[in-house]
């Protein structure tokens, strides 16, 4: 293997790492890991009582699917199960959004995490991007509706 090919490989790995930094996991890791998982943080008061007016709406679910594919697949995977290579490389890894423990979270919790990401939600270690500045409130609720439409896996 030539030196140029080795450097090209290193550059590709660095690009993947930079992509991975744009998404991220949850501090708790359930659905992706074993006994070392931490408890999920409480939904903050300013999000706790939020309700998804788009829940179960077929058009919202379809729109949410498109947004998920554009914004979330690189880390959470095409099946939303945390199996994307970039997401698995994170510490903590990207959450399996179809796992029972994640599905037990409220819509308000999921909306909060999409809105504030990891750093904005003060979740230690999570590099999940915040979407409150780049997606409208309705778009974030559409993603929640889409995630809720998925079966457990």
Please give a structural write-up.
The chain is an all-alpha fold. The chain has a single domain, classed as Orthogonal Bundle (Cytochrome Bc1 Complex, Chain D, domain 2). Helices cover 47% and strands 0% of the residues. Helix 3 packs across helix 8 and helix 7 crosses helix 8. The longest helix is centred in the first third of the chain and has 19 residues. The chain is globular and about 35 Å long. The termini are far apart. 36% of the residues are buried. About 22% of the residues have low confidence.
Task: Provide keyphrases for this structure.
153 residues, mainly alpha, Cytochrome Bc1 Complex, Chain D, domain 2, 8 helices
